[in-house]
């Protein structure tokens, strides 16, 4: 009698970058291990950010997760710490070849709760053909960016979660990382300056961008010929590959924020591969995760199928950069200085609601101090939530 295959289920997010490399690696893993089948499902980017890892872990063996879930996952023990299952030599290679703080972003309380298979931070994107046609060079400073925005040629995501990440970016770029003490998100002086600066740019962005996530911004840029430049959005190397979209995007480091003339510091994103502690086949799931995160697969099969690797060797590969109009070389400096946002269990409560407050301000104006007070109240609630639920 034919033996039934062992089936593992995985969940990721529904974009080429999130879904296709997981299907491709699962297919290859099955060819190497014919007794095993790994089936991947996808969810929307918003669900990817929102749905509790605890809920997903009851249903799936493998989960591609956002690093802000790390604290929650660690607290609930719904995913396994890889330190207990993988050799230290493998984890040391992952740590040493982390793209920026990607590896550290899944490390909490001294344990590694996911492998950083995907690395991303907000970077700039351009349509070189439109800029050339307009006779405009790539913006280098925030003033250059404002001038281009006033011409109606700039777009970026104004969804609440992306607006909050941009708020963090403006704070970091103004010399103060947010959430460094337990009383306030950021000092009032910094916060007021940052909100005004952010609004001065948002005022020149079409309202339709209040409904677009980063890859929808890139779809807008490649399917139409109006937006020439996106100053910051979580990068998707797919759009820098020939044949993927109607037009090719080039990706760049961020503009400099005067007066320090340093490129801005954005808020780290990316995705990690976690294994449910509820899985009946933890050893197999861990072995597959190791396969996906290995430098060889990251640089070849994973990348070739639309993935955006989390291993530094892939980012530095000449072949990979030829395929992607130098996406990885051009944006690596932004990844290396990206800000690692809080990951404590309660911070998700803040992250889920704070963006709405900033969006309302960008759309309708208001008193910056009132906005900051509201953010501070939510922030303190999130810290109390951590204490009550920790």
TrEMBL record:
<dbReference type="InterPro" id="IPR006059">
    <property type="entry name" value="SBP"/>
</dbReference>
<dbReference type="InterPro" id="IPR050490">
    <property type="entry name" value="Bact_solute-bd_prot1"/>
</dbReference>
<dbReference type="Pfam" id="PF13416">
    <property type="entry name" value="SBP_bac_8"/>
</dbReference>
<protein>
    <submittedName>
        <fullName>Extracellular solute-binding protein</fullName>
    </submittedName>
</protein>
<comment type="similarity">
    <text>Belongs to the bacterial solute-binding protein 1 family.</text>
</comment>
């Amino acid at each position: 009698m034919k033996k039934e295959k062992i089936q593992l289920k995985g969940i990721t997010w529904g974009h080429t970058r999130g879904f296709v490399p997981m299907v491709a690696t699962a297919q290859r893993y099955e060819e190497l291990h014919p007794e095993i089948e790994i089936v991947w499902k996808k969810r929307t980017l918003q669900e990817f950010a929102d749905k509790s890892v605890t809920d997903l872990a009851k249903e799936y063996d493998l989960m591609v997760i956002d690093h802000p879930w790390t604290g929650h996952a660690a607290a609930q023990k719904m995913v396994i710490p890889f330190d207990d299952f993988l050799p230290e030599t493998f984890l040391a290679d992952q740590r040493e070849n982390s793209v920026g703080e990607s590896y550290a972003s899944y490390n909490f309380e001294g344990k590694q709760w996911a492998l950083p298979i995907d690395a991303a931070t907000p970077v700039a994107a351009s349509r070189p053909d439109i800029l050339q046609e307009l006779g405009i060079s790539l913006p280098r400073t925030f003033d250059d960016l404002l001038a281009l925005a006033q011409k109606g040629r700039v777009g970026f995501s104004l969804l609440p979660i992306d607006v909050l990440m941009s708020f963090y970016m403006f704070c970091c770029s103004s010399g103060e990382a947010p959430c460094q003490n337990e009383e306030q998100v950021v000092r009032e002086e910094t916060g007021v300056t940052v909100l005004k600066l952010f609004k001065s740019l948002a005022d020149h962005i079409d309202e339709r961008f209040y409904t677009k996530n980063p890859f929808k911004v890139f779809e807008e840029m490649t399917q139409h010929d109006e937006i020439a430049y996106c100053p910051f959005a979580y990068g998707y190397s797919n759009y820098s590959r020939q044949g993927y979209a109607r037009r090719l995007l080039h990706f760049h480091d961020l503009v400099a924020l005067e007066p320090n003339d340093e490129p801005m510091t954005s808020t780290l994103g990316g995705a990690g591969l976690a294994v449910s502690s509820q899985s009946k086949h933890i050893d197999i799931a861990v072995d597959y995760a190791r396969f996906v995160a290995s430098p060889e697969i990251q640089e070849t099969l994973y990348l070739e199928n639309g993935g955006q690797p989390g291993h530094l060797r892939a980012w530095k590969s000449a072949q990979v950069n030829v395929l992607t109009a130098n996406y990885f070389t051009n944006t690596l400096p932004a990844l290396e200085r990206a800000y690692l946002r809080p990951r404590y269990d309660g911070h998700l409560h803040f992250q889920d609601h704070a963006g709405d407050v900033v969006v309302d301000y960008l759309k309708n104006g208001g008193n910056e101090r009132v906005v900051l007070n509201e953010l501070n109240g939510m922030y303190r609630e999130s810290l109390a939530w951590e204490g009550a639920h920790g």
